[in-house]
């Protein structure tokens, strides 16, 4: 299946237009958003309503600019959106584990707790969708040698070896890619990328 994945649009209409253009060009089967689609939570409902109107199954988490409760509540009233923060959820035959918000700490106790709770469900058939990136990779390096990612996420990836990791948050790393023990890690940027994965 083709996934249209994006992150950190921060309310930019040009980025959203590019996403719609990619849909027209590539006919993806699903949209995936790694958060920070607003600037400090302005226009959350407007964005999610417009995203829902694209009529594609859409997996989403909040970023550090959005409030978890607000996003979850709005998504409940949408037809095509699936909020996966803090859970493992299958959408269109693809299993996702989501972790939204945060992004500024190297260790996240909540993420570690979720990893223990859901770890048995995270495997080579799972996509990890995280707003913060894993530590020590090309997707968390804001300057040469200066890594600002999340160690807790790195440890979950190393222990569970998911199919793919999609993340955002670090603007300096848009469209960067790396691997952790063979697991692809991608920051798709605000204008999005098409990524093909196997579905059931």
What is the C-alpha radius of gyration, as a whole number of Å?
15 Å
Report the average pLDDT across residues: 94
Return the CATH topology: Purple Acid Phosphatase, chain A, domain 2
Number of helices: 5
CATH evolutionary superfamily: Metallo-dependent phosphatases
Structural class: alpha/beta
What order do the SSEs take from the amino end to the carboxyl end, as H and E? EHEHEHEEEHEEEHEEEE
Task: State the name of the first-level CATH class.
Answer: Alpha Beta
How far is it from the N-terminal to the C-terminal residue, by CA?
10 Å
Main sheet: strands, sense, barrel:
6 strands, mixed
Please report which band the strand proportion falls in: under 5%, 5-15%, 15-25%, 25-35%, 35-45% or over 45%.
25-35%
Total of domains: 1
List the helices and strands and how they pair.
Elements: E1 2-6, H1 13-26, E2 30-33, H2 44-52, E3 58-60, H3 68-76, E4 81-83, E5 88-91, E6 94-99, H4 109-118, E7 126-130, E8 141-143, E9 146-147, H5 151-160, E10 164-167, E11 177-180, E12 183-186, E13 193-196
Parallel strand pairs: 1-2, 2-3, 3-4, 6-7, 7-10, 10-12
Antiparallel strand pairs: 1-13, 5-6, 8-9, 11-12
Short description:
The protein has 200 residues and is of the alpha/beta class. The protein is built from 5 helices and 13 strands. It has helices at residues 13-26, 44-52, 68-76, 109-118, 151-160, and strands spanning 2-6, 30-33, 58-60, 81-83, 88-91, 94-99, 126-130, 141-143, 146-147, 164-167, 177-180, 183-186, 193-196.
